[in-house]
Design the sequence.
């Protein structure tokens, strides 16, 4: 490939162009063209007979060179096909759209803060509305077994429940062991190591079992719901469902919500057991509390209400996570980036809401003396 | 005879039990516009994907510019890929970039080009593809079906490729747009010496711009020849394709256009 050159001949009235005017040469050519432009005038003749290959990038640069020289600047010696290309390019070329002016930084910061607050408020209203929609659709289909989507329901139970068993169990087991270590270290100073049993059972039954599960489920399943529904939305699949006279909430949302309502309590139960087993391991092997002693204290000192305090929260969290996950999915617009943004938002929102509700519940149960 | 730029030999593609291609041969010469036709599901898109290396064939070789695509080094492969422009059947535009950004992206990746030139080139490709200037700022989800095709064409032209692979470029274009598209391809071929691999169901396009037509049927290329020769073939599918009411109408139109 010959390097392209544009040289201004000695008499100043004639510019000789040579070489291949193609994209590969464009970086070097662009500089030459810009340098040459101010020296051209209406009478300059552009001699293009030396040009070898010409592509659209080269043609663009040629036109740029001819721009200032005006119509009278003649392009001599172009082949018929190259002339044709140049004409096609000239017809197609239009100024690139000007970038919108950038607002100043402080104003932008304030505007963004305002937008964020407003979005938060809108999200909240939308979530409440969506929860209402789910409940009304649920009420509408509960008495009509024909509308139940059993296959879809079981599929989602498998995805969100069964497949999450190993990770939830492992995580709870480890956290249980950590809590036991932590408790033992402090309680040893008071010679009250044996209370570690209560520490583990209380914390896992009331809080950790369900909270750990909720966080795992939000990260695993809530995000999956958003991504699934979001990419369906982006590809107009949701619209297709609607045009078939079906309700997207019924087809897509109800099976997911119900599946989580069923699998979350089961997973929470599993997490409680795994956490207590993890704690028990530490007690038995590190703290010299015998297994019999552990079981005895567990049975004697821990009342069943602690279990129920934890358990009632599971369906509530499940509903919130599923609703947020699905709603964020429906908010997706067009692009792949939007799917990503809403998936992130779905996980952040669900974990935030879960912890918020958990804190409120803790205050509530404390006030009623449970 | 001029140099062969695409050479496919003994290609076999299979998905599970389903054999899509078997012992398929195809040659495309430099500077020619080859039209690939075949029924829906006959494996045209899969053939395209195999040629550009997105689909690893079960057997057979694909040579692009004389290089065996299965054996070349990564750097060579990259260089060859830069000489190919591809328009996918469904556009495959990057949904999170605007049309102008979609078109500029390959140019930016090349490095060394000044930003102003990139913007100008992107605007030019958008114009060449027949889109209005405002379309550059739009996101793919805001485009109509035909505009998606045009934007995808603009992107495939971005690097001024040597071979252009087009998967049903005129599907979804209005007839005026489709005719303008045909002219554009002809102009580019004549002035740039472009080789065009064109999958199409558009008989008008076939009659107007294709130098040769490859018919894909029964898992292989039945015939790869100038249109007149293809039409004379004694194959039931080919006869129905070209002698059906639509085929005849397109032929008349093409003849009439040539006479005037
Ligand atoms: N990734 C894949 N996995 C399994 N089967 C596939 C895959 N891609 C294509 N096929 C099958 O290969 C066959 C050929 O598909 P291809 O997309 O090439 O058809 P086509 O000729 O382009 O049709 P159309 O004109 O409708 O675009 C089809 O039967 C399709 O189902
Ligand atoms: Mg196809």
Sequence:
């Amino acid at each position: 490939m010959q390097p392209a050159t544009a040289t201004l001949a000695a008499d100043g009235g004639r510019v000789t162009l040579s070489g291949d005017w193609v994209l590969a040469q464009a970086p070097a050519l662009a500089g030459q063209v810009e340098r040459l432009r101010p020296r051209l005038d209406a009478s300059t003749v552009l001699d293009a007979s030396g040009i070898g290959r010409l592509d659209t990038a080269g043609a663009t640069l040629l036109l740029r060179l001819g721009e200032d020289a005006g119509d009278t600047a003649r392009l001599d010696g172009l082949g018929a096909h190259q002339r044709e290309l140049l004409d096609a390019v000239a017809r197609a070329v239009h100024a690139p759209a000007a970038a919108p002016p950038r607002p100043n930084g402080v104003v932008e910061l304030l505007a963004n803060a305002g937008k964020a607050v407003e979005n938060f408020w809108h999200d909240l209203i939308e979530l409440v509305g969506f929860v209402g929609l789910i409940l009304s659709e649920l009420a509408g289909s509960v008495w009509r077994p024909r509308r139940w989507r059993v296959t879809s329901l079981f599929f989602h139970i498998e995805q969100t429940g069964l497949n999450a068993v190993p990770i939830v169990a492992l995580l709870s087991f480890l956290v249980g062991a950590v809590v036991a270590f932590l408790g033992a270290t402090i309680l040893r100073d008071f010679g009250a190591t044996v209370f570690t049993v209560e520490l583990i059972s209380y914390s896992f039954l009331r809080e950790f079992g369900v909270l750990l599960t909720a966080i795992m489920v939000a990260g695993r399943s809530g995000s999956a719901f958003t991504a699934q529904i979001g990419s369906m939305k982006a590809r107009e699949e949701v619209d297709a469902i609607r045009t078939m006279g079906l309700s997207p909430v019924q087809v897509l949302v109800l099976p997911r919500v119900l599946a989580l309502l069923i699998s979350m309590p089961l997973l929470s139960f599993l997490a409680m057991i795994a956490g207590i087993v993890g704690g028990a391991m530490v007690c038995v092997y590190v703290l010299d509390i015998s297994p019999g002693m552990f079981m005895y204290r567990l049975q004697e000192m821990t009342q069943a209400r602690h279990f129920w305090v934890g358990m009632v929260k599971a369906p509530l969290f499940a509903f919130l996570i599923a609703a947020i996950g699905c709603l964020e999915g429906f908010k997706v617009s067009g692009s792949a980036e939007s799917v990503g943004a809403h998936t992130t938002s779905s996980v952040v929102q669900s974990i935030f809401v879960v912890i918020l509700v958990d804190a409120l519940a803790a205050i509530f149960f404390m006030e009623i003396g449970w | 005879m001029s140099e062969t730029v695409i050479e496919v030999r003994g290609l076999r593609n299979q998905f599970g039990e389903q054999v899509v291609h078997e012992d398929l041969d195809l040659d495309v010469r430099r500077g020619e516009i080859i039209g690939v036709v075949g029924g829906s599901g006959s494996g045209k898109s899969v053939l395209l994907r195999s040629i550009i290396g997105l689909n690893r064939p079960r057997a057979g070789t694909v040579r692009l510019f004389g290089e065996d695509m299965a054996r070349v080094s990564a750097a060579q492969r990259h260089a060859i890929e830069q000489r190919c422009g591809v328009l996918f059947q469904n556009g495959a535009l990057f949904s999170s970039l605007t049309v102008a950004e979609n078109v500029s992206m390959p140019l930016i990746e090349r490095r060394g080009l000044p930003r102003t030139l990139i913007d100008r080139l992107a605007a030019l490709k958008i114009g060449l593809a027949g889109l209005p200037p405002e379309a550059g700022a739009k996101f793919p989800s805001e485009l109509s079906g035909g505009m998606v095709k045009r934007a995808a064409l603009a992107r495939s032209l971005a690097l001024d490729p040597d071979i252009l692979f087009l998967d049903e470029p005129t599907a979804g274009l209005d007839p005026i747009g489709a005719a303008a598209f045909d002219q554009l391809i002809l102009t580019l071929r004549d002035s740039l010496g472009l080789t065009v691999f064109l999958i199409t169901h558009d008989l008008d396009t076939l009659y107007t711009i294709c130098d040769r037509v490859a018919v894909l049927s029964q898992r292989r290329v039945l015939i790869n020849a100038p249109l007149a020769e293809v039409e004379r073939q004694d194959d039931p599918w080919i006869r129905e394709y070209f002698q059906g009411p639509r085929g005849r109408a397109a032929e008349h139109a093409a003849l009439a256009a040539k006479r005037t």
In short: The radius of gyration of chain B is 18 Å. Chain B is about 40% helix and 25% strand. The longest helix of chain B spans residues 175-192. Chain B touches chain A at residues 94-96, 100, 110, 112-114, 117, 119-125, 127-128, 133-134, 136-137, 139-142, 157, 159-160, 184, 187-188, 190-193 (CB under 8 Å).
